[in-house]
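Q: Here's a chain of 206 amino acids. Please give me its 3D structure as tokens.
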Amino acid sequence: MKSVVGSILKANSAYIAKHSPGYLARLGGRAAPKATVVTCSSPGGSVGMLGGDADADLFVISNLGNQLASSEGSVEYGVRDLRTPLLMFVSHTGCGAIKAAAGDYSNLGPAVQKELDNIEIPKGIDATNGALININNQVEGAILKFSGEVEAGRLAVLGGYYDFNNDLKQGRGKLVITNINGETDPARIRELTRGGRYFHYGFMGR
């Protein structure tokens, strides 16, 4: 335990040494993030996401399986109170929550079971495809919840996958965008990404 706490404090000291007092003061000021990001609580859930000025640009929420339902209040705060124009759900290779939801989790505690019940994926599905389905489900749920913001063009809802094993063949460790406002076709996503068309909604003919 002592070594774990020591490692955390050491990492904090390194972080302080790396950044200027002005940068740290900005982090302590009024929050004005550019995106609300829901990640998995697992260590792989947000690796490589934060860096440089990204610390101050992201309102990050972590929970079991990067779910909307588990942190609905926090997500709503990011979208409607902080008014971030981007909401993103991010999963990752080998997600433990996905593996658990795809199997028998009746031996886990009631609170954990309740969270896993909200991950609607087929039993027995592999972790990669299960994660991709879950991402799509979270994006769909968010589009429905924030339909007013989406239809007004004030909010884009994206899904992403940290591909540490290069399962999607786009590079090991890459954060792959897998869903843009309900669009899941890889070729179409590449087209939208290249054009910066993150507020395109295929289901609305936009």
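Q: Can you summarize the key feature?
A: The chain has nine helices and five strands.
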